[in-house]
TrEMBL record:
The protein, known as: Lytic transglycosylase, catalytic
Domain Transglycosylase SLT, chain residue ranges per copy: 121-217
Annotated PANTHER family: MEMBRANE-BOUND LYTIC MUREIN TRANSGLYCOSYLASE C, SOLUBLE LYTIC MUREIN TRANSGLYCOSYLASE-RELATED
Pfam families (UniProt xref): SLT
InterPro entries, per database record: Lysozyme-like_dom_sf, Transglycosylase_SLT_dom_1
Length: 240
């Protein structure tokens, strides 16, 4: 029993020493991250080496702080990931332009109307968890942002929905803001039916979910997805 107690104490000491060593090294990494900006490409690597050397010196004078080898390897890898992920020299993508600005540039309407469309789209996109650039592209391809357009098969409004199919959603499909909101809801429903696949959801929006699930309408659906992908909102933002 006495030997078991000694063994337990040794295990506890090892756990404490490992924890303290992790804290010491992580403090060094945090200090590195606060030394911004990095002015030379090799600075991060040099600073990392300095931290590792300081940690090694600490363990040389206080060996009880040193954790097992496998902990050192994990710590070193985590430190490299943390340091180099925070390099300020890495190129950062520019923020996309506001949606209303893109609408006004590509479609003939005033700034106030473009802002109104952007508000409708962004509100509907947030409500139904649809990427706003994707919803904007659907409206662009379906109606070119016209509010009173009606297709040969009876689809109406900016999102081109057929009242005989979608009036049960409870939206006034002849009111543009509600029409876009209904379109977002349909897209979101198809997305979940398609196992979280936006390409599949877009094909279903174009040719119908039944045809997609039965393997039909593939050529037309793919052309539709290609048109959506080429819309300025999607292209400028690098996809959805």
């Amino acid at each position: 029993m006495h030997s078991q107690l000694i063994q337990n104490l040794r295990v506890q000491d090892l756990m404490v020493s490992s924890l303290l060593a992790l804290v010491v090294a992580w403090l060094g990494i945090l200090m590195l991250n606060n030394h911004k900006p990095v002015t030379h490409p090799g600075t991060a690597a040099a600073d990392e080496a300095a931290v590792l050397q300081a940690t090694a010196d600490l363990w040389q004078h206080h060996p009880w702080l040193q954790p097992p080898l496998e902990n050192l390897v994990r710590l070193w890898m985590a430190g490299r990931h943390e340091v180099f992920d925070n390099e300020p020299d890495a190129a950062q993508p520019a923020d996309p332009r506001p949606l209303y600005d893109q609408i006004a540039e590509h479609y003939p309407m005033g700034a106030a109307r473009a802002r109104q469309f952007a508000d409708w789209i962004e509100s509907a996109a947030e409500a139904y968890q649809v990427p706003p650039e994707l919803l904007a592209a659907v409206v662009a391809v379906e109606s070119s942002f016209r509010v009173d357009v009606r297709s040969s098969v009876g689809a109406v409004g900016p999102a081109q929905l057929r009242p005989e199919y979608w009036s049960e959603l409870g939206y006034n499909l002849y009111e543009p803001g509600e029409n876009i909101r209904a379109g977002a809801r349909v897209l979101s429903s198809y997305y979940h039916l398609c196992d979280s696949d936006w390409d599949c959801a877009l094909r279903a929006y174009n040719v119908g979910i039944t045809r997609v699930m039965n393997g039909g309408g593939s050529a037309a659906g793919e052309r539709y997805v290609s048109r959506i992908s080429s819309a300025p909102f999607v292209a400028e933002r690098g996809g959805w």
